[in-house]
Every structure is written in structure tokens, then in C-alpha cells.
Amino acid sequence: MSEPLLKVEGLRKLFAIGRGGFRRGAPLLVHAVDGVSFEIAAGEALAVVGESGCGKSTLALTLMGLETATAGSVRFDGRELVGLGSGALKETRRRIQMIFQDPYESLNPLMTVGEIVAEPLHVHGLAKAADERQQRVMQALADAGLKPADHYIHRFPHELSGGQRQRVAIAAALVLEPQLLIADEPVSMLDVSIRAEILNLLADLKQTRNIAILFITHDLGTVSAVADRIAVMYLGRIVETGTVAEVMTAPQHPYTRALLSVVPAPNPRLRRQHIILQGETPDPIHLPPGCRFHPRCRIATDQCRTVDPALAPTTTGQLAACIHLDSSQ
């Protein structure tokens, strides 16, 4: 079996905060990403799902090297990224590109669309000839769904709709011909009417370009359009993984069941009873003992308050971190 394109093992990112970062001589640590492990094969899409504040975006920034990992391993195409110098990391970033959540903020308003898409080529010293650079920019715009490309290349971001701006951001990532796209909430800032278009575009790119995608979202209702597998994240950790069909039809973890219960279902017969989680997400500085979800879990037992479960296989082939894997509650 060939090695996965991206292999993450025990990844941790802790932030020191507090009164000057210390209290009684010890740092206060925010456990933003705390022991995350997963794999993505070439041409595969993995959706990382969870509430705001669970560590999804910090995970993306750490994978990109925009945040320094506290511990763990990130191997891309067999090469360890944690601890790489800036030169080697820049070379790898050409093959891993990120699409940010807000196209209104990620595009330079003083640059034309053509200049925005061409900028990564300048940064990485690629396509130095003007004709080649122009050709790659036009192709990236076309692949991002901005056709005809010459209709957009001289426009500025303020002249585009939200969906068109996000397509420009996608084109700027595609121009480097990456192997992995990290899409951080790529449709959450867009109108509902055009979200499906962007999701379908990402799914098409996965097929036509054989690009692997790490799709980060808080909305389980959007993942089936893009993803092959789902990883559910809670308070810095992955608590369940499985194929889209497995997780959507037979969720094993109580947190996953709660997330799915509020996903709108067009067929009234398929609607689930809403599970409303009680209380707030625990403080990521002062983590609860045992299972991190137990303060909000309706089926928690005394054992949940002392046992911190590890991911374990279930009868369906999923992985879930819960001591009640077979509970029907």
C-alpha cells in the first residue's frame, strides 16, 4: 500500500497566555490542537467538522506552517514538515495551497484579478516569461469557473460578486498546480444560492486535477458534496472518523449525533429529533478530566468523568472516541 499524501500523527498546538503568559511560574496553555492524527490520500477529500472554537482553523494554519507545531508529525508526500526551515517550507507550500474563509479579506483590493492570480507565480519564481505566466493565469481562472477569463482578468475585487471573489481565491491557489488544497470554511461567507456552485467546483477539481482536499467546515450538511471521509473534531481532538455514508447514517459519538440532529432534512420522514447540547464548550485552558465531552453529554456516566477514551474501531469500521460506542441512546 502506497504512503498517503498527507499523514498527521499526534499533532499538537498549544498557546501560552495569561498574566504575561505565566501564573505561579507555570504557563497557562490553550489546547487548540491536542493530539490530532489522520491521513489523506492523493485525490481524496477529508472534511474536518466541528463547532467554532474546536481547533479546525488552527489545525489548518499549523499544517501550512503558519503556526508552529508544539509537537507531533506532519508528513507530506513522505517528507516531514515539522521543523523545516523557511526555504524548504516555502518549496512545500507551493504544493499545499490554502483557500481562506473570507474572500473579502483575502484579496488585495488594489490589485486586478490577473495580478492576484499571478502573484503566487512571482513569489515562487515560476513562469518568468510573460506569455507562460499569462497562459497559466488564464487557465487557472477558467478552471475556477471564471469564463471567459479575459472578461475578469482586468477587474478589481470590488467589481465582483462574493462567489466570483471566492473563485478568484481558488484560481490563485490552482495557478501553482498544488497537490493538496486546504479549504477553511470556503462557503460560509457566501450566499446560500451560490454555495452549491463552489462546493461542486471543489468536487470537480478533486476529480479533474486529482487534488486532495482538506475541507474544514462547521456544517455537516455541506460535506457530502465534496468529501469522501469525515473527521469530527471537538475541543482540539478528533472524536470520530468514517466515510461520509457511515458518519451521516450511523454516527457513533454522542457529539456527532448532536451535530447531525440539527442538519436540515428536506424529507420530513428523515428528520431527527433535535439534540440540544447543554452548557458551553469547556475552557480549552482548564480541560475537564476524563472525556472532554462529558460535561455536555446526556448519556455520560461516572466512568466518562475519569476515562479519556482513545479512538477505537467500531463494528462499521469507523473510529470513535467514546466508551458508549454501542449505546443506542
Structure description:
The protein is of the alpha/beta class and 329 residues long. The chain folds into two domains: 6-95 and 178-320, Rossmann fold; 103-177, no CATH class. It has nine helices and twelve strands. The chain has helices at 56-64, 86-93, 103-106, 113-123, 130-143, 162-174, 192-208, 244-249, 254-261; strands at residues 6-23, 26-40, 45-49, 71-76, 79-80, 96-99, 180-184, 212-217, 229-234, 237-243, 312-313, 319-320. The chain has an eight-stranded mixed beta sheet with strand order 6-7-8-3-9-10-12-11, sandwiched between helices. A four-stranded antiparallel beta sheet has the order 2-1-4-5. The longest helix is centred in the middle third of the chain and has 17 residues, at 192-208. The radius of gyration is 21 Å and the shape is globular. The mean pLDDT is 89.
The CATH topology assignment of the largest domain is Rossmann fold
Shape: globular
Which radius of gyration do the C-alpha atoms yield?
Answer: 21 Å
Low-confidence stretches: none
**Content-based structural category:** alpha/beta
- The average pLDDT is 89
CATH architecture of the largest domain: 3-Layer(aba) Sandwich
How many individual β-strands? Answer: 12
Q: Supply the number of helical segments.
A: 9
Strand order of the largest sheet: 6-7-8-3-9-10-12-11
Please indicate the percent range of residues in DSSP E strands (runs of 2 or more).
Answer: 15-25%
Structural domain count: 2
CATH classification, class level of the largest domain: Alpha Beta
User: Which superfamily, in CATH terms, is the homologous superfamily of the largest domain?
Assistant: P-loop containing nucleotide triphosphate hydrolases
Helix content: 25-40%
The description of the largest β-sheet is: 8 strands, mixed
Distance between the termini: 38 Å
What is the ordering of alpha helices and beta strands?
EEEHEEHEHHHHEHEEEHHEE
